[in-house]
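Support case: user asked for a sample of complex input and structure output to validate their parser. Sending the pair below.
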Amino acid sequence: MVRFKVNGKERSFDGDPEMPLLWYLRDVASLPGTKFGCGQALCGACTVHQNGSAIRSCTTPMSEVGGSEITTIEGIPAMHPVQKAWMEIRVPQCGYCQTGQIMQAISLLKENKNPSDQDIDTAMSGNICRCGTYQRIRAAIHQAAKETA
Amino acid sequence: MKLIENVSLMAATNAASKTGARVAGAEAGRRRFLQGVLASGVFVLSARFIPGTFLAEGEQNPSSLEAGLWMSIAPDGMVTIIAHRSEMGCGSRTALPLIVADELDADWSKVIIKQAIGDPKYGDQDTDGSHSVRSSFDLMRQVGATGRVMLISAAAERWKVPAKECSTEPHFVVHGASGRKVGYGEIAAEAAKRPVPNNGNVPVPLKKRSQWRYIGKETNSLFDLRDIVTGKAVFGMDATMPGMVFASVEHPPVLGQKVKSHDDQAALKVPGVKKTIVIETFKPPHQFQPLGGVAVIADNTYAAFKGRKSLKIEWDESPHSSYNSAAYRKTLEETSRKPCKVVRNVGDVDAAFAKGAAGGGKIIEAEYYAPHLAHVSMEPPVAVAEYKNGKVIAFAPTQNPQAVQETIASVLGIKKEDVTCHVTLLGGGFGRKSKPDQVAEAAVLSKQLGKPVKVVWSREDDIHFDFFHSVAAMYMKAAVGADGRPTAWLQRTVYPPINSTFDASARYADDEMGLGWNNLPFDIPNHRAENGPADYHVRIGWLRSVANIYHAFAIHSFADELAKAADKDSVQYLLDLIGPSRTVPLQYKEEEADEKQRYPLDTARLRRVVEIAAEKSGWGKKPMGKGRGMGIAAHRSFLTYVATVVEVEVDAKGQVHIPGVWTALDAGTVISPDNVRNQFEGAASFGTSLALFGEITATNGVIDQNNFDTYQLARMNRAPKNVDVTIVESDSPPAGVGEPGVPPFAPALYNAVFAATGKRVRELPLAKTKLV
């Protein structure tokens, strides 16, 4: 039995300990805002926070979730400055990867209040956007940083 | 044109709510509005336009009187507009209703968009070919304008004043003389009883361009924007049905293989796995039928994935087991070196070549190669379907819900009308998601299990079993005079055609010739375009901008080669090749009448985008240091004129960086300029992926790439740092915006690499060539 919190709520799980957190969130906890993209931590669509830091939920087995606090996009109180910037810059096209991008960006801004282009590229290059909204993502992160400064 | 009324929206809405499923667009939060729509006294407008004037070429002409129900106004004033095209990131779902709202003079904040199910009454719903706005612009305007006329008519009747004294402001009918006004919601029930203007026989008057409130405005943003950034947007991956089980399918590694035997004992021991089911392999042609294989049914997606790893399957032989990319390339190239089928001829190329060689002119030849590509939309193929009492309800991220109906009907032997396809948002599409094989898998499995089934493809499934963008070989030859201009230009292209998906004997790409091959806009007296035959060994499909990708790569690389051979500036040479402003005479098919009349190939528009892109990029004015260079290409596709300048920096390790891209486009009338810029910024990134990394290969019929480690895409650190997009202001009819940004990118990049390094690379992707 694994005990942990998701978006502030106590949860427990006694299924297959190898099940990635991603599939627990989506199929068991009915929190579909976290997306499946690759299953191998190659694309970042599944990014959530574990104790405040961005992780890839598709390669995090439930056995490693015990005792931790998980935050998904559903647990981010709208409108977070990052989400607001995403709307103002009109970043999304299809939108599928954007919850992962936003979770990664929130984590970046927590660690680095005023990231440079280079900082952003480094932090965000694990997150693929097939629609190619990268320059808007970069601009939105700068804007959110300004707003929270 | 004829307009009729009906109430089929209500039926559709009820059917959707009965399934208890989550549907697209975070609809749950808007249910109260829908209830408003369903309340009595609702004004429901449907439109049917006869004859085909307002239907795009090739569209089905709606033939029943239930055709095309487009919008309704509830007593509370909420306007519901039907989006009959899918949203995969190009903005169609927002753009079409926005056009209706503009002509209706609606307040956009009081508009709800309802996604249409698949139904021929909407005409063609296939969201591909960059034609959603182009095909529906006139129709959507008429729908909105007709509603506005009926609202005015109702208010005038109520006030006992002539209708011509009334006008509208957003969401109100106003009578200027008396200062009276009435809200759309309040007058909706009366408007519903008004006769349809002109009996629907002629188009109603439309707004002047200067009166548009939404069309062409910078303030437009995606209807689903807020849902997307808060994680509430419902994609196909998020669709559920009560009581559903999860399935993952082990497909035949080689196209056409069948399951000889399988052992599922170990798989069934995996926690959560319930059962395995063999899916029959299609009979050729494969079309959109399931590939076959063994499905693992489980309580959740992960258990289904895990169970698959323990399956032991023996496959039989397939005629495609001998498919090896290296050998196949040689075959294509050999074909391209010999005369092929002529698809366009101007003047006498052979005579000009003979004369050129004899007269001291230069003959220049070059061969280009482009590999298969995979779509890899971020959301892999997925679908939920339930078979019950001979009928199927499906939820799918599909570009073409009517193809879902047709495919499932054909595979299960039921009527198309008995398949209901709800369209979710698509996590990218790029052409892959007009092919609904995974939806058919879900329906087949549901029939066997007696409960709803969600089929989820892994990323590896997506890459191994795509409908691939075709591999292609191109041969180019030109005779060049003393002035450096070509007197003759021959181009040959060879690749397995998309039609092989529908006809296993198809070897010529007749349908792809219009995609940048039989319409070269250059001013050359002798020109011949040819197409050679090729056999397919994997499923071939259309991918964002389709054959334009390799056609533009060959043509615009070769144009630059000629420029450099003549020691001319690339931009000047390109303008010279395009030649004077004129309409290029082309052969049009009967079904291309609209294209011939409304979208003639106008070289003035092509020249203009070249000049703008060059100007904006600082072409010829910016000092280019060592390892830096700029390249240009200009290509018209999907009726949109695009020129792109790419600047590259090649570092000491030979890695290519892209500090800047400048694109100018003329797409005629645009609906949402900021979204159009986003499409072209994205196209630069899509272009970077295919130019630098994209390559799918096969060994003994099995695809070699697996996931984003072996099939790489541009990430933020490799994508263009800055993409500058200029939209040419135009009153011309709307053209495409989703795809046309892609084709000029790769040749512009390669031309820039030549400018930076002196290396002329003639094959995609660049990763295969060492630059230092």
